[in-house]
Amino acid sequence: MAEGGYWHDESGPEYVIRRSGIYSQHSQRQFQVQWENASVEMCNVMTWLGFGPHIRKARRDFYMENNMLLNAQHLGKVKMITTGSKAEGLTCLYESDVDNMYVKEDVMCLEDGLSGDMLPKETTLFTLNTGSCYHGHCWLLLKRRGTAFNQTLSNALCDDENGRSFLNSDVYVTVLNSTTPTSDEVRHSRAGPSMPTSIGAYHQDRVLSFACDCPSILQKWAERRRNWPAPDIVQKVVSLRAFVTPVGYKGSENRAVEWRIGFNTGENELVSSLNNTQVYIYVILKMVVKDILKPINKEITSYTVKNLVFWLAENNHQELFTERNLFHWLCEGLKELRTALSTTKLSYYMIPERNLMDSCGMNEKQQRTWVAIINELMNEGPLLVLKLPKIRQAIVSHPVSLFWYGQRRFELELLMLKCMNRLEQCKAADGISNTSDSMLNSILTRIDQIVREVRQRMIEEGSCVNELMEIHNRILM
């Protein structure tokens, strides 16, 4: 971010935000140039905040390797897949919860009409029964007991009035969550399909799931006319399986026995195929929801925003999403969010018949308040980002300090990611890591050096924070 740019006045060391000119009587072209210049500088700010393409790729690569290393220890049993903001490369190590999906590998769910005869005899088969469920939800009817069928599945089976066995989602989660936690693990209340846990600064949302083959849903999605994603990405998403997770439709009287159909790995691919401008729109809109609208009961979520951005990308020509047009598209995103709130309608990107705003729990007062807030934000133009604490702090910071701390944060985060995977690589058969590994010790030494450098700089700047571990954790939050 250059000194004296759109956001700053060079008159003093505190770099007062320049407000003049935004609402003045300039020509349309001059007004457009102002927005374009502000957009370019905002893209630079987003890069220094840790949302640039290189750090996103490094994070994605880490979680892919981490999943591979951990899954190698549990071949044929449970497969872990990291999803959400961590898999998208959009959050620092301790910045938000890690969303991990645990897929039981000896269970397969099939769209009605698929046989499954070619699957191994160990595999238990369920059929998706969607007839009496809201769009994107289903019952799991037992089709075949595999030889690996276990007591957990058996305990969660129920029979309907026709004698058919189906899997109760609530019972299944309850049974699995009754296992004894580790000594340093704290378990929290269930949230939808997720079972949140924490160990120190590390917070994880665990979601139990089964793989699912539903070609008709994916084919219908693939055949839509679109500007995005590219055909090769469409085919890759189609090639990836869906998953069912243990959560029913909020408005259903049978929600305790229902399961939700999702496309987590496919959605990871979709986020990866967004260009930089689209990613920045996604991140800023998430900040608007979290820091300004502040929903208490998840009436609006980051998942809502993700789907909104997917639709924005699909419905518009990709060459229009440039760094000079960031604020134009951010306002378009706010318009779409306003529409979703005022109409309580937003289609799920993969299954448009499912309305993500249906039964979201938003009351009329919230609706009016949030629509008014979004109108106010749109009237602010580029200055709306000053209402977002993380971005405001970066804008008003001295560029030299922002650059220095940003470099240390990126290096520390990358080293921590490497350290975590190296610990897995160094594990012996007994599960204990070989801490004498030279590469591991080199990484740990540099991590310690960075944290001490940051502490020294903070002391020089008058900070009272002195604990190395506290500094380490705060950098990565």
From TrEMBL:
Domain Mab-21-like HhH/H2TH-like: 296-366
Pfam families (alphabetical): Mab-21_C
Protein name: Mab-21-like HhH/H2TH-like domain-containing protein
Organism whose genome encodes this protein: Dreissena polymorpha
